From TrEMBL:
Any one Gene Ontology molecular-function term assigned to this protein's record: glutathione transferase activity
Domain of life (superkingdom): Eukaryota
UniProt protein name: Glutathione transferase
Organism: Henosepilachna vigintioctopunctata
InterPro entries reported for this sequence: Glutathione-S-Trfase_C-like, Glutathione-S-Trfase_C_sf, Glutathione_S-Trfase, Glutathione_S-Trfase_N, GST_C, Thioredoxin-like_sf
CDD domains noted in UniProt: GST_C_Delta_Epsilon, GST_N_Delta_Epsilon
Pfam families per record: GST_C_3, GST_N_3
Subunit-level organization: Homodimer.
PROSITE patterns to which the protein is assigned, alphabetical: GLUTAREDOXIN_2, GST_CTER, GST_NTER
């Protein structure tokens, strides 16, 4: 895909420390984005399952105790959307991933808002009780999530990418949610525009390490979810 030509790493002299947990969709989104930009980094795994996000060391990086977070030479950034915006402004060769143009940039922001305030929270409301509260999946919560899948399908009607004519940070944000939903048995093919975009985006992101960064994490998440279901069966 020609996509790769838009990413020319503006190499830094220092290495960014990326605080990551592979099961987390927002964490995978920001890591994949960082890799797309070719930024040198070292990974620090914060094991959310054993509560490492609440360590005093990590709370100094992110008082909201969530991954992802980065340390860029002593400058700490948290929240996947904010990290991606920062990395784009600071290190991308051009503004295609997060356009400077007010209208194009606002569309990207709207889709990021949709991703982090609606699509991901609705998926989280579905899986958290199964993973941590020992309950069966809720049909009602699945329906709530699917309402936002329908909206995403509408957004993608006659569109190639999530926000406009180019691949942007919104594609990174949303693809990690879709792959996680698929891993916990939501049928993506019910949403034809989403399914077509998903295939396209995976191809576009293959050279950034899509399989190892995103698919592997989504698969691991799916296995954990299924193992919880089996324990309950
Ligand atoms: N809006 C945040 C959400 C991050 C988030 O919720 N991360 C979860 C994992 S998916 C987390 O770190 N949870 C640990 C906690 O809240 O203690 C982002 O996009 O970075």
């Amino acid at each position: 895909m020609i996509m790769q030509t838009i990413f020319h790493p503006n190499m830094t002299n220092h290495i960014i420390t990326f605080y990551h947990f592979p099961l987390s969709p927002p964490s995978r989104a920001a890591l994949l984005f960082l890799k797309a930009l070719g930024i040198k980094h070292s990974l620090k795994i914060v094991n959310l399952l054993s509560g490492e996000q609440n360590s005093s060391e990590f709370l100094k990086i992110n008082p909201f105790h969530t991954v992802p977070a980065i340390d860029d030479g002593g400058f700490f950034v948290y929240d996947s959307s904010i990290i991606m915006k920062y990395l784009s402004k600071q290190y991308a060769k051009d503004d295609s991933l997060f356009p400077n143009d007010p209208k194009s940039g606002t569309l990207v922001e709207e889709r990021m808002y949709f991703s982090s305030n609606y699509l991901f929270p609705k998926l989280r409301e579905y899986f958290v009780p199964v993973l941590f509260e020992n309950t069966q999946p809720s049909t009602e919560k699945a329906k709530h999530f699917e309402e936002y899948m329908k909206l995403l399908d509408q957004f993608l009607e006659n569109e190639i990418w999530i926000a406009g004519k180019n691949l942007t940070m919104a594609d990174f944000s949303i693809i990690t949610i879709i792959s996680t939903a698929e891993a916990i048995m939501f049928q993506i093919n019910k949403y034809p525009n989403v399914a077509a975009w998903y295939k396209r985006a995976k191809e576009a992101m293959a050279s950034f390490g899509y399989e190892e960064v995103n698919q592997a994490g989504a698969d691991e998440f799916g296995n954990l979810f299924k193992s919880k279901l089996e324990q309950r069966a």
